[in-house]
Design goal:
Elements lengths: L1 H7 L12 H17 L2 E2 L7 E11 L5 E4 L2 E4 L4 E3 L5 E9 L5 E2 L16 E4 L20 E2 L1 H7 L4 E4 L4 H11 L4 E3 L25 E5 L1 H7 L7 H8 L11 E2 L5 E6 L1 E15 L10 E7 L23 H20 L6 E7 L7 H8 L8 E7 L23 E5 L6 H13 L4 E3 L17 H5 L5 E5 L18 H20 L18
Parallel strand pairs: 6-8, 8-10, 10-12, 16-17, 16-18, 18-21, 19-20
Antiparallel strand pairs: 1-15, 2-11, 2-15, 3-4, 3-14, 5-12, 6-13, 6-14, 7-9, 15-17, 19-21
Helix pairs in contact: 1-7, 2-7, 5-6, 7-11, 9-11
Length: 520
């Protein structure tokens, strides 16, 4: 395990950003080892790779601009692109409140306001519903988002004031200097994940859009019945508050917006293999084992924060440790007795971008997802807090014989009990359930690949050593890994997977995740 990890966490692999040649090189390394072990390919067309198309959008900073009268606005300082549609428009403005039409709630902010040939300003990102409305509560045909309403009713452009305004500017101001990647096949109604840098670009398509700065917002609403601060306040409002009213801005105000974008296609991939079970009937069911093999890259890419001259975030623990553990288990299952059920191995891509690989795999699985009896996820299993360590950044890091266990009882009491029984009868690790608290402020349950399996009904267990001083930093090196701990966690997960694969029945799902917990 040490030999493998020193390779994939070396500078040669440049932090395994998604997408990158170095990530592809890691995928090939995994595939080559699986082929040598004679693990059955379970990707596309008989290969180990499940190919995922990405959309790469590059912003032309020199050709993108905005202007209202004599006031000029600069890209990256005064406004950001709000999506991936370029173009040039000039039109008067209207404010449309939250901009959502929801017929069952008698919400229609556009009454008395014509958006045709107008730039529409919205308190929201155009994608997430207004405060107090969940995606799950919306029925087909009952609603119209600001984006679809604007497109259907002839609006020329959108100015979006998102709820997570400060975060969008923190990430978005950087994103204008580098490509924006999205996964077209994963775009849906809304994203409630404010944690991801991917949220820096709202997935609006088909209409030009922009996110204004505070200064630009104040300029747009100077002298109006609402000022820019109020428009932002409505965007960040708590559920149940005052509903903003729509109105046309002064007729002499015309916004000229020019966003120049170039979009091309690139690819990344999940790596997928199967060790077939020996039982003629049960081999059609699978125990899924997962880890993400990507990290955050180098030179400030994807959130990697350089330290001095070291600009590569090697990702030995995150998640080179889980990636390596998964390879070790593939070897053990191939060389040891075959279990009754099949074992599904998935090395997920793009976890650091917003769980891309697991979202893609669970939407487009290469084996029937309803035949996956459980998913065991290892994301950071190799670091230990040393005795006497007083660094506040390591306060949540587990000790040498300890690991956080997350979500094991959330859906299946039986799975949680089996996980405990296996550990008691084997290595006796200290299981820490701190992050199973419903109101966990760090929201760890939502931040790794198991989440996408859980929200589609597959019971999960997530193993995690804890955030530490080198999290997403260049110091996450292979020489800081506790290899004994990494081995012990991997062996424990291997035994649990074996028990699940040989059990006469799949673990019973006796609990439902509350709807509010299904939203990231």
């Amino acid at each position: 395990m040490k030999e493998i990890l020193y390779v994939i966490a070396s500078d040669e692999y440049a932090g395994r950003n998604t997408p990158s040649p170095e990530l592809d090189k890691t995928a090939q390394l995994i595939a080559d080892r699986l082929k040598k072990l004679k693990v059955k390919p379970a990707g596309d067309r008989g290969s180990y790779f499940q190919r995922i198309a990405l959309s790469k959008t590059v912003i032309d900073r020199e050709q993108s601009s905005a202007r209202m009268g004599e006031r000029r606005f600069r890209l990256g300082e005064d406004f950001l692109p709000g999506g991936r549609t370029g173009g040039e428009v000039e039109a008067p403005l209207v404010y449309a409140g939250y901009g959502w039409v929801i017929r069952s709630k008698n919400l229609n902010p556009y009454e008395g306001v014509d958006v045709r040939d107008r730039v529409v300003v919205v308190s929201g990102d155009g994608v997430a519903p207004p405060p107090g409305v969940t995606v799950q509560s919306l029925q087909p045909g009952d609603w119209e988002s600001p984006v679809s309403y604007a497109q259907k009713n002839g609006a020329r452009a959108l100015v979006l004031v998102p709820r997570n305004f400060d975060r969008r500017w923190r990430f978005g101001a950087v994103s204008v200097t580098r490509p924006i990647y999205t996964v077209p096949r994963l775009e849906n109604l809304a994203s409630d994940d404010d944690e991801d840098e991917a949220a820096a670009a709202a997935p609006t398509q088909g209409i030009v859009s922009a996110i204004p700065s505070r200064a630009m917002l104040e300029a747009l609403f100077a002298g109006e019945k609402l000022d820019g601060a109020a428009v932002l306040r409505f965007a960040q409002a708590a559920p149940g508050g005052e509903q903003p009213g729509a109105f046309a801005l002064s007729a002499d105000k015309r916004l000229r917006l020019n966003v120049k974008l170039t979009t091309t296609e690139e690819f990344t991939q999940n790596v997928v293999g199967v060790v077939e079970g020996k039982d003629s009937k049960l081999k059609r069911e699978y125990v899924a084992l997962g880890a993400h093999y990507d990290h955050v890259g180098a030179n400030g890419a994807a959130g990697c924060r350089p330290i001095g001259t070291d600009s590569i975030c090697n990702g030995a623990d995150d998640d080179g440790s889980g990636t390596t553990g998964l390879l070790a288990m593939a070897e053990a299952f191939r060389k040891g007795p075959r279990p009754r059920r099949s074992i599904l191995f998935v090395w997920h891509t793009g976890e650091e971008k917003g769980l891309w690989g697991s979202e893609y795999y669970t939407r487009y699985p290469t084996v029937p997802l309803n035949q996956v009896v459980a998913q065991l996820n290892m994301d950071m299993i190799g670091r230990s807090r040393k005795e006497g360590d007083t660094n506040p950044a390591n306060r949540r890091l587990t000790g040498p014989d300890e690991i956080y266990v997350i979500g094991s009882r959330m859906m299946s009491t039986e799975l949680g009990e089996l996980n405990e029984a296996v550990n008691r009868g084997y290595l006796g690790l200290k299981y820490n359930y701190h992050y199973d608290e419903p109101n966990d402020p760090e929201r760890l349950f939502y931040r790794s690949d198991h989440f996408n399996y859980a929200k589609r009904g597959v019971p999960i267990v997530f193993y995690f050593d804890g955030v530490h001083e080198d999290y997403h930093r260049p110091g996450d090196h292979a020489d800081k890994i506790d290899y004994q701990k990494m081995q012990n966690v991997t062996r424990t997960v291997f035994v649990l997977a074996s028990e699940l694969a040989n059990a006469p029945a799949r673990p019973v799902v006796d609990k439902q995740i509350p709807a509010e917990r299904l939203r990231r």
